[in-house]
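Internal ticket #5521
Category: modeling
Description: The requester needs a full-assembly model to guide mutagenesis choices. All entity lines are attached below as received. Residue total reported by intake: 626.
Assigned to: D.W.
Attached entities:
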Amino acid sequence: MLRSLKGLVCRSLRLDRGCALHTAARDGLSSVSSQDVPAERPRAVFHTSESDPAKHTEQHEARLYNIPLEEVKAVFPHGLPHRFQQQIQTFNEARVMVRKPALELLAYLRGSNFAHPAVRYVIYGERGTGKTMTLCHVLHYCSRQGWLVLHIPDAHLWVKNCKELLQSSYKKDRLDQPLQASAWLKNFKTSNERFLQEIKTQKKYMWGKQESTEEGRPLGEVVEQGLARVRSATDAVGVVLREIKQQSHRGSFRLLVAVDGVNALWGRTTLRKEDKSPVSPEELTLVHNLRKMLRNDWSGGAIVTTLSQTGSLFKPSSAYTPQELLGKEGFDALDPFVPISVPNYSPREFESCYGYYLERKWLQHEKAHTEDGKAELRFLSGSNPRQLDRLAGPL
Amino acid sequence: MKLPTVRGLPASLVPCRIIPVRWSRYNPSYLEPEVKKELYQKPSEELTEEEREQMELKVVRPIKAAPPALSSSVFSDPMISKFTNMMMKSGNKVLARSLMSQTLETIKRKQLEKYHKAPENEKETIECNPYVIFHQALKNCQPIIGLSNITKGGKTYQVPVPLTDNRKRFLAMKWLITECRENKHRRTMMPEKLSQELLLAFNNEGPVIKKKHVLHKMAEANRAYAHFRWW
């Protein structure tokens, strides 16, 4: 009870000032008068001032925690869903709900033995239930703990709508994707600056005839090479992945491989070669290297992946289970994994989300404040987070 | 339906039934469907005389089928439905409705961003409710007086004429939609264009308000011909 009072009082401190302030846990409890607390109580129950995911427990379930905007730019240069980014822009703050699947994953990560091979976690669920947001929550935790985070925001972007396909100079029958690789390298650099100086290459790499990176140079140089020479960006990505995987067992850093839409790696592509024959995912260098990362033959970290039907190719819209989306090949490649199911909002989570929208003045319609409006929103959305967000947009 | 008797014509040429083709084909005894939940939840003591009669009639009379646009949702607004129908092209109501909801969302986002950045004393002046903005913008765009073509002595004159409420609403909506469709850059999306126009009209600025003023000026200029109107 005392902890929730603390959360309320911190909230009321925030609410006293007109504009939103981004703070972590506050200690100035004594300055708040006690008569503020009962008035704010119905509104502030769904917030928590605990902005460190490491301290999130079941008590924080169905509550929203704040991520400071500078951290958002540093930790998530890519990877947040588009509508959530718009919401951050409109509300001027990033609030993520703490939900059961994320708490489960965090408990597994805390208790895992990093001397053993990396455990694979697959987050699955129906459309719009919050798989990507769960992944982002876990990512935030890992980056706060100082892990090296390898985040592929959407693997589907690598298997479709690719304007340039170059033949790989390294292996004759593989295809390079310079644009996608250089975009990913740029975002990787933003989120993992300090590791790029610490990790050193273990082998000499030749980029074409003249340029090369010597042994023992920091990994940042490989990334710079990939960004400067876009033609060799894909090979730079491959080198980065290889180096990180080989050095993770030493224990100087923990590695988190986070892939959203992992079913893209084992599906079909919509890309075609110059002779109009279809390209299969193995023929793409990026996909090939990423598949090697997802094997559990390395230790010192964890692999967290998400299935996604939304961007997938040639999969029916009702498919959501790992068996349906990964297919036989993908399932066998990822087997054994820990499945984590993400359901729709529970009644408490729905109340929390509804209260948050009301508090941020997102629900402007007069009827939306009534019980009838709330019941209608609950019915129409079916407690699905995405549907609720879409419905609350025009209201 | 009784067969009409026509004298002088052989039986084979008498029409079998006179079937109504235009307007409502329902028998006059059919009642309109009642969608408002509050009416059914009221206990019988609180009902007024007419409502009590209506409820009694409902027991004996048949009821018309509810049209698909009629909604029992608390969020439904007849003005918004009318506007959506006017935006619709070739029956694609799904697209028209999604454009309308995106427009309302865009208006809300723009206003909320302004609200959060504004200093304390100005926060009350910023209106964030997209429905209020929509209704006020439409009201601001409605002309008071219109022009009608009347031909007298071979010449056609533009005669100032009073407008009914329906006509005013229709003209306001039509002008907004045409302005967005025709006078904007080809690549801008409709929600963006519409939200911009609605916000301008809410503040009594913008091309649609100008068009209304032009119409008023023309009506004022043609005051001399007002007596040509006979209705």
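Resolution: model delivered.
Comment from assignee: Chain B is about 50% helix and 5% strand.
Ticket closed.
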